[in-house]
Every structure is written in C-alpha cells, then in structure tokens.
Amino acid sequence: MQIDAVDQRIIALLVADARASYADIGTRVSLSAPAVKRRVDRLRATGVIRGFTAVVDPAAVGWTTEAFVELFCAGRTTPAQIGVAARRHPEVVGAYTVSGEADALVHLRAADISHLEEALERLRAESFVTSTRSTIVLSRLVESPGVGPSTT
What we know:
The chain has 152 residues and is an alpha+beta fold. It has two domains: 5-46, Arc Repressor Mutant, subunit A (Orthogonal Bundle); 58-136, Alpha-Beta Plaits. It is built from five helices and four strands. The chain has a four-stranded antiparallel beta sheet, with helices on one face. Helix 2 (22-29) crosses helix 3. The radius of gyration is 20 Å and the shape is elongated.
C-alpha cells in the first residue's frame, strides 16, 4: 500500500492524540472530515493502523521499576515459543528477538525490586531459558508513542 505525505501526517496526529476528531485532523491536513475518515478507514483496512488504545502512565498505577532482560535459550527455541511464554507474564511489556549473543530481549515493568525479582524468577523458570542477563532502567530519557513524522 502506498502511504502519501497526508497519510503520514494523519498517522502522526492520531499517534499524538487518538481521540482527535476527523474534523480536527482535517483542519490540520487540509481535508474534510469525511475525507480523513475514508483515509483512516483505508489505513485500518490495510493494517497500517492496527487499533487505538489508551496509554497508561506506569507511575500512576505503581509499576515504576523496569528492566531489560536478555534471554539465552536452549537449542532450537523458536521466536513463537518465546512469544507465547512472554505473554504468560503480566510484567512483560515487550519481547523481541535480537542479534548478538542473546536470543531475545524482554522488557519488564514491576512495582518494585522485589516484584521485579519475582517476575524475573518466573521468566527464568521457562523450560527453554538457560540463562539471563538483566539491566535495570534508572531513568527514561526519550520515549516516543509511535512512528511517523512530527505533528508540528
């Protein structure tokens, strides 16, 4: 699917505020509300936009401790096996296959160090995990809600 500059701008505006009305977006991209709706419908139908969601501040719900955990896996563990296992743990906010020594990188978020340790122990107990290496996040420097050009 071809995405033009207007589609890119619409995507960026929706990433910045998924609750923006089609009329508001239309004003910013010089289109009518129905034209914006047609474009958003097309972007959804083709899978460019996969959905709309609320972004929750982890501090507001008390999950302020984070770590990135490198997983080292046994034998021929598949990405699908890692993904299924990662979804079993509510503290996992992201899981990725990576290049380098580790087989996967898992992003954990927890209430405190004790909770993080508990989550890490459960993750280590997965049958295919042979070892882990963890890095605890001290502070967030840059965080972007999505992809696309700036909305300014």
